[in-house]
């Protein structure tokens, strides 16, 4: 399937304007293209068209406003508007965990791709960015060939995305590497011209086939998840025998072959990607008859989920096994700082379990309250840290926002009813809290109750 897209790309569409797509659309405008973002959610489109970002991502609202106002970026629910206009179409729709299963739900990608192929009336390159099971690009290429207008030349490339929430703009405009899966050099050249402004001389450009491109993405996330569970498995050991998990992480992290990043022990990983991606990868390889190869990821998942249960168990220990009616302040409800995303959030999971056990849970998060309230409307959400901790019998720090990392005992001493804190992200200094008379617990540290 060879396309005759001009190497000079001017017009770009992005299908799906969630965390990934809205960022990609704004960054494409920043790189100089005329961009239209398309989504099936009319509310999202209305908000983005007004220059408002419906989620929290540092630096992105400014970029969206700049290019919406400047006329380089607009949003629509109508695919036909881009079908006759764009030279390159990026697919950035969701691939969530399938309901009641562990694989990826491919209905959004499949629908978006076939609807797009039907809507396109000029030669174009379609570029998949969503995270997908290996084999998807080849399958979609066939689907596109079956669906497209016969006189139109369409080609498909796979270009997985590695951005981190909280750093999405920076990661898109100055990526660590770009991975491009294509079936011909023309499509690669087209994408090279698209990303020319984002590439400096040293940015690795990895040109490969579909399968490798798809697998690089899930391999990266599986590796990151494994690294976190690796250190958390050692946290289970230091909780029993004693020792300091942070010193252990620092010490192995000094070995440049290992590296210190992603070795922070605590309540574990969450979010819309790492958990579902390791499950989808296992499911896909099992479908391929290779159920042994990725079985270790099941352990990675189990270690991770045990951290949440451990945090809840520590809360019970701290409160003498009786949480009913006791006020517990949960600080941090997003899956990580600098985001309002609560998908598969460890902190929210811990809060919900304690709430369901009868505790009077008071949540405070600088950005995540509104999203968490949609999931668990009966829990109490506070607008300030002060309100959440006042009268608390236990404080649990579940997301390491800066304003929590810098907390001191003096900030809380006279607000709480009882001086008890669980630092589930290992960011506070135990000695400061213990010296101020607090019962201080951290994951990876022997519990004061043992
Ligand atoms: N969130 C992140 O940081 C990253 C996400 N990814 C991957 O990117 C993909 C998207 O993830 P998110 O942006 O987080 O999901 P999201 O749920 O925030 O956004 C997906 C968007 O697609 C829209 N959509 C669904 N079907 C559509 C259709 N037929 N036409 C147009 N729009 C449609 C939805 O309305 C929604 O706005 C996933 O595969 C994810 O694994 C990859 C790297 C980073
Ligand atoms: O595929 C995706 O969507 C993205 O998933 C992750 O990015 P993100 O989910 O934004 O967040 P991370 O910074 O990776 O953190 C994930 C989770 O791991 C936890 N974590 C991270 C690091 C660590 O040392 N310990 C730890 O528990 C965080 O608190 C968070 O809950 C990857 O880092 C991105 O490269 C990838 O593009």
Automatic annotation (TrEMBL):
Residues annotated as binding substrate: 162-165, 217, 262-266, 270, 336
Domain UDP-glucose/GDP-mannose dehydrogenase C-terminal stretches: 329-430
Active site: 273 (nucleophile)
Catalytic activity: UDP-alpha-D-glucose + 2 NAD(+) + H2O = UDP-alpha-D-glucuronate + 2 NADH + 3 H(+)
Keyword Transmembrane: no
SUPFAM superfamilies: 6-phosphogluconate dehydrogenase C-terminal domain-like, NAD(P)-binding Rossmann-fold domains, UDP-glucose/GDP-mannose dehydrogenase C-terminal domain
Stated family: Belongs to the UDP-glucose/GDP-mannose dehydrogenase family.
Name of the molecule in the record: UDP-glucose 6-dehydrogenase
InterPro entries: 6-PGluconate_DH-like_C_sf (IPR008927), NAD(P)-bd_dom_sf (IPR036291), UDP-Glc/GDP-Man (IPR017476), UDP-Glc/GDP-Man_DH_C (IPR014027), UDP-Glc/GDP-Man_DH_C_sf (IPR036220), UDP-Glc/GDP-Man_DH_dimer (IPR014026), UDP-Glc/GDP-Man_DH_N (IPR001732), UDPglc_DH_bac (IPR028357)
One Pfam entry name: UDPG_MGDP_dh_N
Keyword NAD: yes
Example of a GO MF term: UDP-glucose 6-dehydrogenase activity
Record pathway: Nucleotide-sugar biosynthesis; UDP-alpha-D-glucuronate biosynthesis; UDP-alpha-D-glucuronate from UDP-alpha-D-glucose: step 1/1
Keywords carried by this UniProt record: NAD, Oxidoreductase
A biological-process GO annotation: UDP-glucuronate biosynthetic process
Residues annotated for NAD(+) binding in this entry: 39, 44, 95, 131, 165, 276, 343
Enzyme Commission number(s): 1.1.1.22
Class of the enzyme per the UniProt entry, highest EC level: oxidoreductase
């Amino acid at each position: 399937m060879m396309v005759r897209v001009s190497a000079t790309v001017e017009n770009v569409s992005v299908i799906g304007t969630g965390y990934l797509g809205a960022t990609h659309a704004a960054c494409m405008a920043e790189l100089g293209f005329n961009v239209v973002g398309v989504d099936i959610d009319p509310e999202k489109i209305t908000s983005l068209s007004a220059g408002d970002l419906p989620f929290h991502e540092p630096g992105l609202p400014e970029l969206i406003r700049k290019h919406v106002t400047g006329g380089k970026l607009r949003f629509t629910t109508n695919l036909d508007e881009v079908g006759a206009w764009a030279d390159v179409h990026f697919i950035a729709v969701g691939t969530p965990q399938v309901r009641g299963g562990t694989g990826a739900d491919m209905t959004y990608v499949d629908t978006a791709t076939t609807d797009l192929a039907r809507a396109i009336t000029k030669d174009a390159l379609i570029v998949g960015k969503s995270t997908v099971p290996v084999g998807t690009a080849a399958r979609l290429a066939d689907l596109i060939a079956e669906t497209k207008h016969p006189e139109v030349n369409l080609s498909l490339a796979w270009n997985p995305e590695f951005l981190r929430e909280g750093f999405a703009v920076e990661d898109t405009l100055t990526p660590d590497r770009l991975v491009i899966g294509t079936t011909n050099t023309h499509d690669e050249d087209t994408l090279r011209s698209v990303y020319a402004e984002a590439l400096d001389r040293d940015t690795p450009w990895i040109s490969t086939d579909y399968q490798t491109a798809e697998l690089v993405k899930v391999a990266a996330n599986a590796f990151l998840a494994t690294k976190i569970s690796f250190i958390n498995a050692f946290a289970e050991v230091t909780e029993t025998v004693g020792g300091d998990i942070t010193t252990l992480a620092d010490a192995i992290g000094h070995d440049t072959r290992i590296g210190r990043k992603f070795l922070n022990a605590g309540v574990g990983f969450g979010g819309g990607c790492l958990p579902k991606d390791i499950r989808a990868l296992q499911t896909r390889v099992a479908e391929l008859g290779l159920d042994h190869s990725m079985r270790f990821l099941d352990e990675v998942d189990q270690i991770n989920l045990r951290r949440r249960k451990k945090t809840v168990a520590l809360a019970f220990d701290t409160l003498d096994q009786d949480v009913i009616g006791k006020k517990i302040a949960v600080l941090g409800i997003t899956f990580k700082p600098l985001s309002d995303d609560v998908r598969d959030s460890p902190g929210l999971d811990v809060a919900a379990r304690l709430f369901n056990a009868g505790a009077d849970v008071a949540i405070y998060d600088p950005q995540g309250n509104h999203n968490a309230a949609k999931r668990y409307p009966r829990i109490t959400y506070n607008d300030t840290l002060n309100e959440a901790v006042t009268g608390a019998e236990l404080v649990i720090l579940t997301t390491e926002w800066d304003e929590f990392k810098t907390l001191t005992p003096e900030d809380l001493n006279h607000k709480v009813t009882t001086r008890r804190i669980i630092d589930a992200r290992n960011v506070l200094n135990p000695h400061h809290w213990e010296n101020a008379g607090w019962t201080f617990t951290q994951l990876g540290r022997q519990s004061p109750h043992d």
